[in-house]
Design a protein that fits this description.
Number of strands: 7
GO molecular function: oxidoreductase activity, acting on CH-OH group of donors
Strand order of the largest sheet: 3-2-1-4-5-6-7
InterPro entries: NAD(P)-bd_dom_sf, Sc_DH/Rdtase_CS, SDR_fam, TAT_signal
Bound molecules: nicotinamide-adenine-dinucleotide, magnesium ion
CATH superfamily of the largest domain: NAD(P)-binding Rossmann-like Domain
Pfam family, one: adh_short_C2
Number of domains: 2
Radius of gyration: 19 Å
Number of helices: 11
Order of helices and strands: HHHEHEHEHEHEHEHHHE
Family: Belongs to the short-chain dehydrogenases/reductases (SDR) family.
Keywords: Oxidoreductase, Signal
């Protein structure tokens, strides 16, 4: 069997297996487009595969909810859609080895699923409290026929960051893609409420850890490798209740552009993604005020938050060798408002 045929056949088998597993870990109502057959949008969709993005996913108001930090996707209402039932790979990352921080839930989880279905082996980092979410991701990666490596631990610790990279490299046999995605966001109405400890916690998670992990990873990365950081629309237009968080996201966007200039000499591309409002545990575990959460995403032109499944493809695009001239960029996905 030719290589191409082999991969096509394997993808077909894997898509069946992943669909079965995904059905067990998602709420079917969320994973399906909400447009009705017979409506203009439904008809267009049936004929050409084109989908109207407006009715695809839940709109505010959302039910009042709160979880202890760091939160679990499994306990959110509605449950986020990470692409468990929808993402279809096409071999864009065949044979790549990827490390994704915060890969248990939200944007990192959607990216892990997409990478695996594109043919990559994936190591995920997360906190020990998130084991329940992480287990599901590990199963989904394996169901895609790829290697999954679970590496729990707290990235605020420099020694742990170094060992995380070492363990990922040895378990995967190398490292081609690093996704710095883990993040800490806690809402405070006033600067007067932000303690030094809280400020330090946010900066350690979002900036120091990204610096430590990236520094440890680069010596292992070949020419052609890709680093993808997760910034935010807050980098450019800071929310008044997220002072400490927003400034870390500005730092990440800046770090990305500077590092890209250095890494071009090694053939390593460095980009960032800047999400707008996405429906993830970060937001329901102290990341937003109750009022903001109820109306989450309402202020965007799309009138709703994004679901993690709607941004994973940006990470795939930036990781793929097809983007060989794309480096030092910050890509947005924000429902129509915000920069870059
Ligand atoms: P999420 O809660 O699903 O993911 C964040 C992850 O960060 C957690 O799952 C956790 O594993 C990890 N994390 C936090 N502190 C850690 C620590 N000390 N050690 C190890 N891991 C730690 O939420 P998400 O929204 O998918 O967040 C992913 C990234 O997206 C974050 O960088 C966040 O700032 C960014 N972002 C999110 C939004 C949004 O609206 N959800 C918008 C812009 C940017
Ligand atoms: Mg999580």
């Amino acid at each position: 069997m030719a290589d191409d045929d082999f991969f096509k056949a394997r993808r077909k088998v894997m898509q069946g297996a992943t669909a079965a597993l995904a059905a067990a870990v998602t709420t079917p109502a969320l994973a399906q487009p909400q447009s009705q057959p017979g409506t203009a949008a439904g008809a267009a969709s049936a004929k050409s595969g084109v989908q109207d993005p407006r009715p695809l996913y839940p709109h505010p108001p959302f039910p009042v909810q709160s979880q202890p930090w760091p939160g679990l996707a499994a306990r959110m209402t509605p449950r986020p859609d990470h692409g468990e039932r929808s993402y279809r790979g096409s071999g864009r990352l065949t044979g790549r080895r990827a490390l994704i921080t915060g890969g248990d839930s939200g944007i990192g989880r959607a990216t892990a699923i997409a990478f695996a279905r594109e043919g990559a082996d994936v190591a995920i980092n997360y906190l020990p409290q998130e084991e329940e979410d992480a287990r599901e991701v590990v199963e989904l990666i394996r169901a895609a026929g790829r290697k999954a490596v679970a590496l729990p631990g707290d990235i605020r610790d420099e020694a742990f960051c170094k060992s995380l990279v070492d363990k990922a490299v040895s378990a995967l046999g190398g490292l081609d893609i690093l996704v710095n995605n883990a993040g800490r966001q806690q809402s405070h109405d006033s600067i007067l409420d932000i303690t030094t400890d809280a400020f330090d916690w946010t900066l350690k998670t979002n900036v120091y850890a990204l610096f430590w992990i990236t520094k440890a990873a680069i010596p292992h990365m070949p020419a052609g490798a890709a680093i993808i950081n997760t910034a935010s629309v807050n980098a450019y237009d800071p929310s008044e209740n997220l002072l400490d968080y927003a400034c870390t996201k500005a730092a990440i966007a800046n770090f990305t552009k500077g590092l890209a200039k250095q890494m071009a000499k090694r053939g390593i591309r460095v980009n960032a993604v800047a999400p707008g409002p996405f429906w993830t545990p970060l937001q329901v575990s102290g990341g937003q005020t109750e009022a903001n959460l109820k109306e989450f995403g309402a202020k965007t032109p799309m009138g709703r938050p994004g679901q993690p499944a709607e941004i994973a493809t940006v990470y795939v695009q930036l990781a793929s060798s097809e983007s060989s001239y794309v480096t030092g960029q910050v890509y947005g996905a924000s429902g129509g408002s915000g920069q870059p």
